[in-house]
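Work Package 3 (structural annotation) set out to generate three-dimensional models for the target panel prioritized at the project kickoff. During this period the team completed the workflow that converts sequence records into C-alpha cells, so that structures can be stored uniformly alongside our sequence database. As a representative example, we reproduce one entry of 50 residues exactly as it appears in the project archive.
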Amino acid sequence: MPACFYRLGTGNPERGIQSPLHTSTFDVDESALETGMGLMSWLAIKELGN
C-alpha cells in the first residue's frame, strides 16, 4: 500500500509559540489542528474514491 508522511508545523512565532518538541515549554498553536484534520480527511476521501 502506498504511504505518505507529512510534517505539520504547530508553532506560531507571532503568538510566542516556538519551543521545540519534547521540551517542557512545548506548546501547540491549535489552529494547526484544523489544517491537519483537513489534510487527513482529504487524503482519506481521495483514497476511498479510488
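The two ends are 13 Å apart (CA to CA).
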